[in-house]
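Example 3.2
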Amino acid sequence: MNHFKSLFTLAIVASLTACSSAPERSASDLSDEEVVSDTAPGIKGDAMNVEVLSASGGISTDGSSMDQSLDGMKMVDIAELYEPIVYFGYNQYELDDKTTELVKFYAQEMMAIPNQKVVLKGHTDERGTPEYNLALGEKRAKVVAQAMMLFGVSESRIDIVSFGEEQPAVAGSNENAWQKNRRVELIIN
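Structure, written as tokens:
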């Protein structure tokens, strides 16, 4: 029993020690070297005079790019993050939050360049009759078109084509292939 009490007491002391924090000091107690600014990483200075730090330690006060890259890190174009394909569930043609964000991104891209048009190519997997799949591919393309119009793209800039099951992205009769084939491709030109 005494062994249990000792372990219990030790556990309480350890938890209290782990929860303790350093005593607070006022700004007048800190030396100039200890003062920490509350800015984002890579930013040096105060709110009135911000300097952007490069990975090599160089400073750019005008926000221009540095001579050296960020340690060879490839800068990713945002368009690379959004593949211009909307995928759907089995026998589905509704957009979820993720696919709505994708459509919104491409609608905004089109709004930035007013003379661009988009062709929405609706596809299905191989299950179902050819007639049913053509209709389902069209429904999928139309729901994407409706979302693009809600985000400001004129209907005259959107063309819809349904291929049904005729142009699979992946050959095969399994869930992995079917998943990749249930799609609408956005071809912007």
